[in-house]
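Following up on my earlier thread - several people asked me to post the actual chain instead of describing it. Fair enough. Here it is, all 68 residues.
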Amino acid sequence: MDINTFSAYAYFGLTVFLVIMLYSYIYHLYTKRKSADGVDYEEYANMALDDDLTDTPVVSVKDKDREK
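Reply from S.P.:
Thanks for posting it. Predicted structure:
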């Protein structure tokens, strides 16, 4: 086996490994949506887009008071 064949196998192996790691990280993100304190941060996903003064807040002040 020459160096070109070895580097091709190594490149393929590294690519497969990185794809598996990427998909496992995405799976981890979607299965563990809530943090340890119970906050679902996906509610905050559109916060940068809905930042006008007339838009409804993500979490109202009344909801925060009830949680405590």
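The chain has a mean pLDDT of 81. That should answer part of your original question.
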